[in-house]
Design goal:
Pfam families: BPD_transp_1
CATH topology of the largest domain: MetI-like fold
CATH class of the largest domain: Mainly Alpha
CATH superfamily of the largest domain: MetI-like
Keywords: Cell membrane, Membrane, Transmembrane, Transmembrane helix, Transport
Structural class: mainly alpha
Number of helices: 12
Protein name: NitT/TauT family transport system permease protein
Shape: flat
Family: Belongs to the binding-protein-dependent transport system permease family.
Number of strands: 0
Mean pLDDT: 81
Membrane topology: Multi-pass membrane protein
CATH architecture of the largest domain: Orthogonal Bundle
Order of helices and strands: HHHHHHHHHHHH
């Protein structure tokens, strides 16, 4: 469809109507200057293509860098799995007690298809998250209070020092005796083990805030509540999350002990029962699952920590 706009007057003073076509065609068809505003939008396509190619190059460069970093970080793990697969097959270790990694993966897949792995996984995750969540809900506020108010710290520090040096495993029989073999004793056991790293790191995070930050905030007229909310708490967040990540690892480790002592479901029970029944590949399948769960949990907490510590420069 022909364009009805009027072209600039030519040297001879003639006005003509513009039609679609390349600049050269327009030049031939309409003698005189052809300006950018006379061109249709398609003539700008080369610049758009160049921007698109530049975007793809940046994306490919980022993917390449990420792939190289992942390869370097996973090299040791791949080497371990290769050794695990090779040594039993060449007879260096007894494959009855240490089956090749591929056989353990087959056992893991069979447990997954039969539904047993999902049942034990669900039981362990519910117990672990329950104890871990309760530990965060109780230990973080208590640690903030102890770290901020000296009279409270003076009152509770002797009691905290007494219990922090008491192993959770030593108290497991007490939890079972009082709460029974059901879920409350296992969740309480995880809660007790997770509370200490969170509590102690929270107290340390509040007490080690830079004094210069506090003086500067007070010189700007901040009240106690605003000072705590705007300065103390953000400065303590990295240390608090260090304790939370430690507690996340403990929530898996101590739960296995509780499930090995008295449970009818859970990954700890699966590992213990498979070892007692001499189902060795099933035992390693449970251990692999625990390792993957712990690693995934730690990565998730690391992402949450970065989300709440975006203000840090290092």
């Amino acid at each position: 469809m022909a364009d009805t706009r009027t072209a600039p007057e030519t040297a001879g003073g003639t006005s003509v109507a513009l039609a679609e076509g390349t600049p050269e065609e327009k030049q031939e068809e309409y003698p005189g200057d052809v300006h950018w505003y006379d061109l249709p939008d398609d003539d700008a396509a080369p610049e758009e293509d160049e921007r698109r190619r530049a975007s793809w190059r940046r994306l490919w460069s980022a993917v390449s860098r990420g792939g190289s970093r992942a390869a370097r970080n996973s090299f040791a793990v791949v080497l371990l799995l290769a050794v695990w697969e090779t040594l039993p097959r060449i007879g260096v270790v007894d494959r009855v007690f240490v089956p090749p990694f591929s056989e353990d993966l087959v056992a893991w897949y069979d447990l997954l298809l039969s539904g047993q792995l999902g049942e034990h996984f669900q039981a362990s995750v519910i117990r672990s998250l329950s104890g871990f969540g309760l530990a965060i809900a109780l230990a973080v506020p208590l640690g903030l209070v102890i770290g901020w108010y000296k009279p409270v710290a003076d009152l509770l520090t002797p009691l905290l020092e007494l219990f922090r040096n008491t192993s959770p495993i030593a108290l497991l029989p007490v939890f079972i005796l009082i709460l029974g073999l059901g879920e409350p004793s296992k969740i309480t056991f995880v809660l007790y083990a997770c509370a200490w790293p969170i509590l102690l790191n929270t107290v340390s995070g509040v007490k080690t805030v830079e004094p210069m930050l506090i003086k500067s905030a007070r010189s700007m007229g901040l009240g106690p509540v605003t000072l705590f909310r705007k300065v103390i708490l953000p400065a303590a967040v990295p240390t608090i999350f260090t304790g939370i990540r430690l507690a996340g690892a403990y929530s898996i480790l101590v739960l296995l002990i509780a499930e090995m002592v008295g449970a009818k479901a859970g990954l700890g029970y699966l590992i213990n029962d498979a070892q007692a029944s001499f189902r060795i590949p099933d035992m390693y399948a449970g251990i692999i699952t625990i390792s993957v769960v712990g690693l995934s949990f730690n990565l998730l907490l690391l992402l949450v920590e970065r989300r709440f510590s975006t203000w840090r420069t290092t």
